[in-house]
């Protein structure tokens, strides 16, 4: 974890000085102490789950081998962690061709649900329905459509359903119809749930090594609990983001230079936005990917408003590499593609530095279950620490609940009046 390009030694007065960090040392220590108290009070469920017995998933993993497909129905925190893991570990391409094939239903868009259903043989599909609250409208809508289709097919369909929930309508149905069930602990919020049953049960079935993933997280947990800011990457990164926020950096760009971490950016985006966007505070997360976004976003980052801090993620070793063979003279001839993408990162990093845009960089030796587990835990801790710094509860999302309530009222009130008329009559010409 390298933060030198956020320091004044590299970007002049726009950067942070060592004495700026020294001024925050007391606050940093108290953040760690507060979190320690919260953990003792059972408020940090995302750390408690690291003590879970992984043998709980063995039987399900064996059972899932009977199926060609996994269908994941869930949204937000009940989707993004698994998605990030699948693409980080299995690779965005390989997983599409290997068994089992994984399909995601998150949105309540009828076209998308219909498209997925057309491809699926439901008898050969293990359906995960994931909702901590058990009442999320998008998840229930998709699940009810799938359930109904399965029922009509007249096979022993309840054996194809794995329900991961804690409460609500889904919990009731799970008990009534006796689905395979895993609980989501009450103290684990959706966006902090990737290392709980929400992520681990389907990951085990997708042949991701969950033991290594949680081992990586446990290794990182130790560092992220240290009071010494210079030894604790989560603590340092949360203070760098906080100090930059106070210098007007209201946007946090996550820019991995490896395709397999593209979805990790989405996971981070939810964690950072939903946890910290409260009481008028919060840094807006933006997801980019190098080198592709150099050709769409970089102009803005370098020469637009000075309101951003950029995080780079990169790897020293890719799963495979390709050498560029070419019979004519060319500047790239003989180089490996990994050398090209990593040089592009150097170019972007230095260009941003030249324009006084702060950046931090995390370099992984390679991207595997251990390093992914470390990344997940580091960012969960960084978010929890940031909640302490801002003095806000990082674990609730009252504004999201508000929107859900209005949507529900709108849906039920308008049924009798004919909703499509209502939708088309307001604010439309
Ligand atoms: O982080 C959160 O709590 C939310 O994003 C939830 O994960 C999301 O709203 C889905 O909720 P549920 O798992 O209850 O269906």
What is the succession of H and E elements?
HHHHHEHHEHEHEHEHHHEHEHEHEHHH
- Residue windows where pLDDT falls under 50 for at least 5 positions: none
With helices defined by DSSP (H or I, 4 residues minimum), what is the helix count? 19
Total number of β-strand segments? 9
The rounded distance between the terminal residues' Cα atoms is 53 Å
- Estimate the global geometry from the Cα principal axes: globular
Integer average pLDDT: 93
Strand order in the largest sheet? 2-1-3-4-5
Rg computed from alpha carbons, rounded to a whole number of angstroms? 23 Å
What fraction of residues sit in β-strands?
A: 5-15%
Q: Sheet bearing the most strands, described?
A: 5 strands, parallel
Helix content: 40-55%
Small-molecule binders here are: 5-phosphoarabinonic acid
Brief summary of the model shown:
It contains 19 helices and 9 strands. It is an alpha/beta fold and 429 residues long.
Question: How would you characterize this protein structure?
Answer:
The mean pLDDT is 93. A five-stranded parallel sheet has the order 2-1-3-4-5, with helices on both faces. Strands 7-6-8-9 form a four-stranded parallel sheet, sandwiched between helices. It is globular. With 429 residues, it is of the alpha/beta class. α9 links the parallel β3 and β4. It has helices at residues 8-11, 18-23, 25-40, 45-48, 58-64, 80-90, 94-97, 110-119, 137-152, 168-177, 197-205, 210-224, 233-246, 262-276, 298-303, 337-354, 369-390, 398-414, 419-425; strands spanning 69-73, 101-105, 125-131, 161-165, 180-183, 251-256, 284-287, 308-317, 359-366. The protein is 49% helix and 13% strand. The structure holds 5-phosphoarabinonic acid. Residues 75-78, 131-133, 136, 139, 189-191, 274, 397 line the site of 5-phosphoarabinonic acid.
